[in-house]
Amino acid sequence: MAFELPSLPYSHTALAERGMCQETLELHHGKHHQAYVTALNGFVEKNATLQGKSLEEIVKLAHGDASLAGVFNNAGQHWNHILFWQNMSPTGGGIPGKLEAKIVADFGSVAAFKDAFKAAATTQFGSGWAWLVQGSDGKLKCTKTPNGSNPLATGEGKALLGCDVWEHSYYLDFRNRRPDYVQNWLDKLANYEYALSQLG
Amino acid sequence: MTRLSRRTALFTAAAATVAATLRVRPARAQAAGPYSLPPLPYGFDANEPHIDAQTMMIHHDRHHAAYVANLNAAVKDYPQLAAMSPDALVARLADIPEQVRTAIRNNGGGHVNHSMFWQIMGGKGGAPAGALADAINRDFGGFEALKTQFNRTGAGVFGSGWVFVTVTREGKLALAPRPNQDTPLMDGGRVLFGNDVWEHAYYLKYQNRRPDYLAAWWNVLDWTKVAARYDQAKAGTLTI
């Protein structure tokens, strides 16, 4: 069965007042994410070994295999964007008490967590992602990955939050100012309720 | 509001912000260090309508300026590196102290790539002539074939990067895509010309349509400048 573009869990205008305009969401979801899905389906159609496999299986199987670079890029980006849409909310930014306690335990403070996340996001040179993951030791940490890679592929832990730092995520709203985009994302867009629901 | 009027309003507001901050630009450009942002050799609007003035302004005054500032910061505690030209820095990454190697790769690469990029634009497109046209015919099967292969290669760069045409001392040409701010200079090569396919190079005007940007970009090439670079390559004097 072919992979499909999931619907956004909110309207295209829902995040506009929180720093992500309608046009950004329309392009990002309807064009960029759709293009990854279309390309992934094209690869699967031509490659019998990929057929019948789940998205997670394809991401792991293609990771590190140069002959499957195109598969990895598009499967990874499909997986990343499925998470990304759920990682934002029109009422985002508020951290539930239980998650806050875990953040304080592992980072020292909410501010220290945000600094670590921002550092990951702004030092990812070129296109990529910043992540809040829960490692196999149970501890939260911030990481980054280039282009279409993700913690599922690298094995760095379970992704609780992923922030897209490809320029197409923020260029219409913030131009070159990636640090401002990431700060706004953490303060006003991030769906910490979702992150808590994924916490092991 | 329609999409078009919404974007126009957005851009007008942003342009006003940029214009307001232009007054503080000299202070930023004078950041201490051996490397400096080369002035754009033409107006921001010189590549209209193919590349819009706002994109040129942000690309040169913000993105390129940031690479220069970060490169200066990277060499601050290394006088022997600060004495080197930017092309020499990126050509000898293996000799660079590990603590600053990535910073110099990214920001030195960004500095040399963009310095080349501004040089070869500002023209009216058209077609190459003379010895350069002969080399393109020989190595790509013609100018149209070069454009087709170059555009396909640029569209195939996943994420941020560049597509270059490299040139040897003998004048032989080849296509060379690179990720992020890497450059063939890092592998001992020489760049005849190249196009920036980071989204910041085209997103305000072309959004997700990178192939449209790649196709339009040929209209702003200055073939006189590219031909001069070709001559320098054969003379052994081409640097960035």
UniProtKB/TrEMBL annotation, chain A:
SUPFAM superfamilies assigned to the protein according to its UniProt record, in alphabetical order: Fe,Mn superoxide dismutase (SOD), C-terminal domain (SSF54719), Fe,Mn superoxide dismutase (SOD), N-terminal domain (SSF46609)
Keyword Ribonucleoprotein: no
Catalytically driven reaction(s): 2 superoxide + 2 H(+) = H2O2 + O2
Binding site for Mn(2+): H28, H81, D164, H168
Keywords: Metal-binding, Oxidoreductase
Cited Pfam families: Sod_Fe_C, Sod_Fe_N
Record domain Manganese/iron superoxide dismutase C-terminal: where: 97-195
Enzyme's top EC category: oxidoreductase
Documented EC number(s): 1.15.1.1
Record GO terms (molecular function): metal ion binding; superoxide dismutase activity
Domain Manganese/iron superoxide dismutase N-terminal: 3-89
Functional summary from the UniProt entry: Destroys radicals which are normally produced within the cells and which are toxic to biological systems.
UniProt family annotation: Belongs to the iron/manganese superoxide dismutase family.
Protein name: Superoxide dismutase
Species per Swiss-Prot/TrEMBL record: Limobrevibacterium gyesilva
UniProtKB/TrEMBL annotation, chain B:
Family as reported in the entry's similarity comment: Belongs to the iron/manganese superoxide dismutase family.
UniProt name for this protein: Superoxide dismutase
Domain named Manganese/iron superoxide dismutase C-terminal: residues: 128-229
Manganese/iron superoxide dismutase N-terminal domain sequence ranges: 35-121
Signal peptide: 1-31
A molecular-function term among this protein's GO annotations: superoxide dismutase activity
Function of the protein: Destroys radicals which are normally produced within the cells and which are toxic to biological systems.
InterPro entries the UniProt entry points to: Mn/Fe_SOD, Mn/Fe_SOD_BS, Mn/Fe_SOD_C, Mn/Fe_SOD_N, Mn/Fe_SOD_N_sf, SOD_C_sf, TAT_signal
Pfam families: Sod_Fe_C, Sod_Fe_N
Keyword list, A-Z: Metal-binding, Oxidoreductase, Signal
UniProt superkingdom: Bacteria
EC number: 1.15.1.1
GO CC annotation terms, alphabetical: cytoplasm
